[in-house]
Amino acid sequence: MIRARLWSAPVQIAVATALVLGIAYFDPIYHLPINHRLGVFLDHALSLAISIYFIRRYSPSVKPLLRLPRFDIRFNIGAFFAIFISANFVSGIKDGHSSFAHWVLAIIAALGVGLTEEFFVRGYIFGAFSRFGLWPAALGSSLLFGLLHLSNYFAGQGLGPTLAQVISASGFGFFACGITVFSRSIYPAVLIHSMIDLPIMLSDRHFASTHLERGELKGALWLALTYFVLGLIFLIGAYRYSKLETLFIKWRLIEPSA
User: Fold this and answer.
1) Residues 181-225: pLDDT tens digits?
2) I want to staple 145 with a disulfide (CB 3.0 to 4.6 A). Which of 56, 111, 116, 173 is the partner?
3) Cβ burial, residue 148 (10 Å; 0-12/13-18/19+)
């Protein structure tokens, strides 16, 4: 009984968060006498392994979300939406100086961030909160995802930009939960998350902002609200999919099930 209380759900979440943040913030592998790019890869691999362990051990309900996706209509809708949003981020990149190799490394790095953060938050953390119900899980994991970005302040980013990032990241977290639940797969959220981080990986700009730009806080609020509305649409759509399917058949977008 005492052991169960000591290793309660909040303690599990705190330990997992400390491990993943510790790897991201202190970069322990970078201190080894190995190539820097290999160190980055090993950092992501270790964080991902920790997330998978905690999912398998303490959040088994979300394990189906991590499997290779079934290409049914729900996943196809989520994937189409993810590709559409990702294409907008990629098309907005203005970079004529990066070599092909730089692009490849930036894409790999962005995918590494997308995989590790989504597996940890939309995987383990969402699963840990899911015992309280879908909506508390979506809201709780999204808020924690936003708060995790406070670590950027201790890495040298200004307080104002960090708070703006916490707001926008919380909104994105709710949207990522929505598209994950609707598509029954974590990979649409991984794709969008990776493409959001791709411009940063291409520019090699990390936490350089020390003060709020004009309109940055307002922009973060509007972005968070937009993401929140999209998350609501996907979460409600996951519950009401049977009615949506009837409309899709009526509009001849899909064939009736056999």
Assistant:
1) 999 999 999 999 999 988 888 875 554 577 778 788 899 999 999
2) 173
3) buried
Helix, coil or strand: residue 93: coil
Which residue in 45, 41, 59 sits closest to 122, CA to CA?
A: 59
Nearest-angstrom CA–CA distance, 51 and 64: 15
At 55-69, the pLDDT tens digits run: 999 999 999 999 988
116: enclosing H helix or E strand = helix 100-118
pTM above 0.85, yes or no: yes
Between CA 243 and CA 147 the distance in angstroms is: 36
Q: Which helix (H) or strand (E) holds 19?
A: helix 9-26
CB-CB contact of 64 with 123 (8 Å): no
Distance spanning both ends of the chain, measured CA to CA: 51
Query: What is the C-alpha separation between 140 and 123, in angstroms, rounded?
Result: 13
Pick the closest to residue 51 from 236, 190, 192 (CA basis).
Answer: 190
> Across residues 107-126, what is the average pLDDT?
93
Q: How many CB atoms lie within 10 A of CB 102?
A: 14
Which residues, at least 6 apart from 105, have a Cβ–Cβ distance to it below 8 Å?
A: 37, 201
Quote the CA–CA distance of 1 and 7 in Å, as a whole number: 10
**Whether 235 contacts 178, CB under 8 Å:** yes
